[in-house]
């Protein structure tokens, strides 16, 4: 049986999933790049929000790589 909480992660879990520090995750929240919510003083994240963040990072990396290729061609 699936419950509403099945797709909810803590700050620590998200940091481990992304292989970054908890402080880095907090910075991404403050920058508006990762959506979360607080339960008391603790941050929580829906699986969908983490997936959206990852997709956004992948798109950004592709754009950066394309820009670097363009810069290399112009040089």
Automatic annotation (TrEMBL):
Residues annotated as transmembrane: none
Highest taxon listed in the record's lineage: Bacteria
GO MF entry, a single one: DNA binding
InterPro entries: DNA-bd_dom_put_sf, HTH_17, SinI_DNA-bd, WH-like_DNA-bd_sf
Gene3D superfamilies hit by this protein: Winged helix-like DNA-binding domain superfamily/Winged helix DNA-binding domain (1.10.10.10)
Pfam families linked: HTH_17
Residue intervals of the Helix-turn-helix domain: 9-57
Protein name, per record: Helix-turn-helix domain-containing protein
Organism: Dictyobacter kobayashii
């Amino acid at each position: 049986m699936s419950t509403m909480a099945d797709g909810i992660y803590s700050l620590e879990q998200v940091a481990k999933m992304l292989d970054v520090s908890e402080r880095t995750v907090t910075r991404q929240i403050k920058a508006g790049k990762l959506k979360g919510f607080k339960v008391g003083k603790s941050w929580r994240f829906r699986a969908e929000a983490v997936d959206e963040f990852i997709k956004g990072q992948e798109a950004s990396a592709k754009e950066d790589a394309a820009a670097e290729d363009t810069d290399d061609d112009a040089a």
